[in-house]
Specification:
Layout lengths: L1 E4 L1 H11 L6 E6 L6 E4 L2 E4 H10 L3 E6 L5 H7 L4 H4 L3 E5 L7 E4 L3 E5 L20 E5 L2 H15 L19
Parallel strand pairs: 2-5, 5-6
Antiparallel strand pairs: 1-9, 2-7, 3-4, 7-8, 8-9
Length: 172
């Protein structure tokens, strides 16, 4: 297990590990906004990386608590395969407060950072949030986290949720 702070989260998880995903990528976040990452010599929306992964046959699961920011929504429309591919799934649950990224069931980052530029350290040193989290490859931690995310994704908590009447998109 490795502690990651501030821009180290962005560098290790988002820039280095996430694009190397080969089987599946699960992202769980409360907030989701425009986030850019390096691709070759330019910076592109993270959605482009997700689109590339989906195109390569990687299953991507994106779970978030509220509607994405306006720039994220504009960028989303530029990647139609995120809407049409069976490899991309997205759910909205207003109770999600977890921030986790699971890569191929081999590594997981769990921490305080939302999927935003300020949260993941992509903004300038004096503008970004102060964030911390752990990167783990411990099989026990991974198994328990993945089982819990699966329960959330499959709507097992949805039926008994006391927010169901105001939920914008009930899972089950």
């Amino acid at each position: 297990m490795h502690l990651l702070l501030n821009e180290a989260i962005y560098q290790k998880v988002i820039v280095e590990l996430l694009p190397q995903t080969r089987k599946f990528l699960w992202i769980v976040t409360a907030d989701i906004k425009d986030l850019h990452v390096p691709k070759g010599r330019r910076f592109v929306p993270l959605l482009e990386i997700l689109s590339d992964l989906v195109e390569a046959g990687v299953s991507v699961r994106l779970m978030h608590a509220k509607e994405p920011g306006p720039r994220f929504r504009q960028d989303f429309d530029k990647y139609p395969n995120l809407l049409s591919s069976d490899h991309f799934e997205r759910i909205l649950c207003p109770r999600i407060h977890t921030k986790a990224i699971v890569i191929d069931g081999q590594q997981a980052f769990v921490g305080s950072a939302n999927l935003t530029g300020a949260g993941l350290g992509a903004k300038g040193k004096h503008k970004r949030n102060f964030e911390a989290g752990f990167l783990t490859s411990d099989p026990g931690h991974l198994q328990e986290l993945m089982e819990w995310i699966d329960q959330l994704y499959l709507g097992e908590f949805c039926r008994k949720c006391l927010h169901r009447k105001v939920c914008p998109d009930p899972i089950a």
